[in-house]
Amino acid sequence: MVSRFFCPEPLPESGEIPLPEPVSHHALRVLRLPDDAPLVLFDGTGREVAARLVVRGKRAFAELGAWSEPVRESPLELVLVQALASADKMDWVMQKAVELGASRIVPVRAARSVLRLSGERAAKRVAHWRQVAVAACEQCGRNRVPEIGDIVDLAVHLSAGRDAVEFVILDPHAGEPLTSLGAPQRARHLLIGPEGGFDELELAACRAAGARALRMGPRVLRTETAGLAVLASMQALWGDL
């Protein structure tokens, strides 16, 4: 497979460019790519460019070739609102949600969240998750890196989007199955609780914000499974799968 790399600064249309230091390090020191190895670069605008690696000593450059704009984004605007879970579970959710086409991921604090983050620790973890999202895009072929939001309280997120989006929450005891929902006509936010689930006050807040409770079968799904299962199901029903 041809190695793909995200370059955060806008790429020129042609010519030779120095690769950003993190990309250069990954290409030369981690992947040990040889001179003239084929590459694909993207800068988040939706396009990608074929390139060739140019190695000069310890520096890596890329000779840009033909641009293309393959369609790899989902036609659905699906936002995963994931309550904080343990660190390894959050990394897994971030990676797989990007692969499954989530347009945005919002980490939220919940009463039963095992992971507690604030201040500098929260900022560092969000920066880490954003790098996880970049790596997932490089692997899966997406040319737009979905936004990973700052950590906010669930109530803050619910109040900010109440009039412009559609909220969905899973409940194994709900009367309606997911298939009764229909294709989204606007941004659809999938509210996923932590390991212990949302508490009663949080569930009441979700209902007050207009969240529609739906079931994904009779079994209770783990927090790291639930959001991914919904994303995959919605893509299969109405998206690009």
TrEMBL record:
> Cellular component per GO?
cytoplasm
- Name its cellular compartments: Cytoplasm
Question: Mind telling me which Gene3D superfamilies this protein's record contains?
Answer: 3.40.1280.10, Hypothetical PUA domain-like, domain 1 (2.40.240.20)
Q: Name one Pfam family in it.
A: PUA_4
Q: Name one GO biological process term.
A: rRNA base methylation
Q: Where is the Ribosomal RNA small subunit methyltransferase E PUA-like domain?
A: 20-60
Reported EC number(s) for this entry are 2.1.1.193
Q: Which intervals hold domain Ribosomal RNA small subunit methyltransferase E methyltransferase?
A: 73-235
Where is it chiefly localized?
cytoplasm
Q: Which GO terms describe its molecular function?
A: rRNA (uridine-N3-)-methyltransferase activity
Question: Domain of life here?
Answer: Bacteria
> Which CDD domains would you find in this protein's record?
RsmE-like (cd18084)
Q: Which NCBIfam families match?
A: PRK11713.1-5, RsmE family RNA methyltransferase
Physiological role: Specifically methylates the N3 position of the uracil ring of uridine 1498 (m3U1498) in 16S rRNA. Acts on the fully assembled 30S ribosomal subunit.
The family annotation for this protein states:
Belongs to the RNA methyltransferase RsmE family.
State the name under which the record lists this protein: Ribosomal RNA small subunit methyltransferase E
